[in-house]
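Entry 12.
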Amino acid sequence: MISPQRYAKALFEIAIEKSSIDEWIKQINNISLVLDNEDVIVLLDSPQVPENIKFDGIETLFSDIDLLVKNLIFLMTRNRDITKFNLFKNIFNDLVDKHFGITRVQVRTANEIPPNQVKKLKESLLKFIEGSTVEVSQIVDENILGGIIIRIGDKVIDASSRTKINNMKDFLLQGAT
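Predicted 3D structure (C-alpha cells):
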C-alpha cells in the first residue's frame, strides 16, 4: 500500500507540468462523489473481483475523466488503496492551495455573518496568515450561543460564548476547592 500523500504529490506534479490543476480538481471532486457510494468501493476493493472487471467498471464510471487521473484510480485500485481516495483528495487540495497561496479558514457562528463582516474578517486574517488569499467557509451552528470559532488548518481560535462560560465555570469551581 502506498501513502495517499505519495499519490497526491505525484499527481500534483503532473498537473503542474500539464497545466491541468483546475480541470483535475473538478474531476477529482466528481470521482469522490462516485466513490462515496459504498457499493462502488466494495467492488473496487474486493480481492474476489477480478482486476479486469474492476478496470472495466472504472472505464465505465469515469469515461469522461482525463487518462492520467483515471490511471491514478487504476493504481489505487490495484494497490488496494481506493478506500483512501478522500484522504488523497484532501492532500491534493492542500497542495493546490499551498501552490496558489490560499489559506482556507472555517468560521463557525450561531448566525450567518454578513458579507461586509466576512470581508473585514478576511482582511484581519491576512495580517496573521502567510498567503496571498484567504478563503472563508461559514458554518452556522445553533449549539454556539454567540461568538465565533475559527479553524485555520489544525489551529482553532475559540471565542464562543459557550467556551467563555465553561471557562468561567471551571474557574469558579476551582476557586471553591
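Annotation: The helical segments are 4-18, 21-35, 38-45, 51-61, 67-78, 85-100, 115-128, 161-176. The beta strands are 102-109, 133-140, 147-152, 155-160.
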